Amino acid sequence: MSSDMRQTPAPLTDDELRSLDAHWRAANYLSVGQIYLMDNPLLTEPLRPEHVKPRLLGHWGTSPGLNMIHTHLDRLIKNRDLNTLCVWGPGHGGPAVLANSWLEGSYSETYPDVTRDAAGMARLFRQFSFPGGVPSHVAPETPGSIHEGGELGYALSHAYGAALDNPDLLVVCVIGDGEAETGPLAAAWHSTAFLDPVGDGAVLPILHLNGYKIANPSVLARLPEDDLDALLRGYGHDPLHVTGDEPAAVHRALAAALDTAVDRIDTVRRAAREGGVTDRPRWPMIVLRTPKGWTGPAEVDGVPVEGTWRSHQVPLAAVRDDPAHLRQLEAWLRSYRPEELFDEHGVPRADVLACIPAGRRRLGATPYANGGLLLRELPLPPLGKYAVEVDRPGATLHEPTRVVGALLRDVMAATADRRDFRLVGPDETASNRLDAVYAASGKAWQARLLPVDEHLERHGRVMEILSEHTCQGWLEGYLLTGRHGLFSCYEAFVHIVDSMVNQHIKWLRTTRRLTWRAPIASLNYLLTSHVWRQDHNGFSHQDPGFVDHVLNKSPEAVRVYFPPDANTLLAVTDHVLRSRDYVNVIVAGKQPCFDWLSLEDATVHCARGASVWEWAGTENGSREPDVVLACAGDVPTLEVLAAAQLLRRHLPDLSVRVVNVVDIARLMPSGEHPHGMSDFEYDGLFTADKPVIFAYHGYPWLIHRLAYRRTGHRHMHVRGYKEIGTTTTPFDMVVANDLDRYRLVMDVIDRVPGLAVRASVVRQRMEDVRLRHHSWIREHGTDLPEVVDWSWEPTGPSPR
Description:
This protein is α/β, with parallel strands linked by helices. Residues 12-373 form the Xylulose 5-phosphate/Fructose 6-phosphate phosphoketolase N-terminal domain.
């Protein structure tokens, strides 16, 4: 529709303008009060130094603009009865969002001691950035929030994730100057190519440019309007520009822009839902330019503040010590005319509250910001349908992720009508052997289609974009608004979201302590194409360290799993998809892998987290083992079992115990992690004084860090990835990092007392094979025949 054919919104009446301005001034007053005051909230007496907090913290610069936006969203929601969620990108402007939540009453409903009167206002002010109080950022404690504002970059991808499969939801996303310069935000603009106007909600970005970041001008604010307009149009938007510093004019212009934007969204939706239009729409957005620190001190100590970077945090920093600053603060607060905004009891007057919507339409009360309230159990089918048959260990091979792909396909099919499950990943669904899901859903895509394209669908629920940041943000927004999902990624490149997952873990840890927040579905990673099977791509694709990063975080919120075969991967996947309030990391291979356990045994093994594989060792039960071979990960498990077989063949009198670890946190003491083992359990599994040769998937020092307090830690020797990689054969990767079966046998000989002399010939044979391997691969380009053709030779009874 051309712009001249669009309906022009009715202008604000004088009464509407007066009421909106009163609400905005009240929010500004409350924002300043939170930063500065600990007493005298209504200024019923002259301001004195003791009324001011000893430590002044918070961010004023963005707050008046956020208050303006919140005020006008209230009007829009009320007038049109909209189902709305707002994501506050400049979340460091926490005073503004808290102020508006208090004005609308949702804050007092959530925290009854912070009443909507003078006493509650005093608590609201005092608690802000105060010991034992609330954070200065928009945070989990903030009603209506799904987005922690401490780290910038993620607001827009969160907003799109929230809109997916919520066809009646309007998600407003406020983006600030600093956030607009980040890589994650820049990639998230491409989300317009994935948003389905039929099955998804709408995202309305508001790019709020006040010109500055902490200490510098912002890039987009300095662009000429035509250049900025062209950039945003290239991303798929139809921008509406609102610029000004005179409040009445900005009120009128912003009201008109929001009405126009929602009208255009309605037009897009009707065209797609009723008219069958499949062309990619051009979605509206708003560019709002207002001064940084608007309505605050114009100058402080003769230096410009309003409209500059100096207003970013606390414009008047010496209020308790400098009488001039104290007088300026009082004048600033009184400029909002609080006596017109609140009655003598501190209750907001009717004009201030006139624009606020009712009930769950309020931004601080929307259930979409407390997604656990909307969460439904995922319809997971019985695992027996997907299990591989295991008559005896190591007799067959399967690609574990391909097996679990069939499970995900059926989960996708079972949620086709309710649309509350999504699979996200950076262009790797097929590469990671999960392409069975395409039988139930294609890949979301709204851009141009070509005849050569495959599996692209307007209404698809598989999400692929080559931006791990955007995948992470989409999934977080989706989960936080009450749905389920899984993130599949190459192991080496999931590190790109290290900082994002850190923020999500902090969010989960905090919400666990908030009784009013309902549990949400866990954030689940499936990391594959891992370090030991990236021999073809080489060193750049070899990094198993994401689990180290995750295990540094809050123990109650993180879980890490290393399923060694297809059935254990099925059991772990079923478990994590049922879980709540965790970040679960699964590391599993996509290449053909031996099947070690039946589904029944895999389920028991996963429930234990770590257990002895009796069928793999040579214990006779009459005495403790001479050595423990432990493993975590599919390739380490293969190498440990091959080493156990070599030991059985060459040193038949040696008593060997094989322990496989699926849940790596089991190694931690029970007092440090909910899944940790007691010392009694740990010593029973690994012994207190016998050598433990541990073959681990990742960096070996992680195992030492997890187990360093154990009695037998000094007897533990860990092999893992030593940051040695290249493009080479699969087995050469393990040899290069000393994780191979022959090295493990040598470790056993070196560490079992008395064995070094008695088994010196065996040790020499193992070394000879390693030398022969080195020559063989350089001549033939393939691994040794005894490695390529290796198979497990069963001894004794198989598992149940």
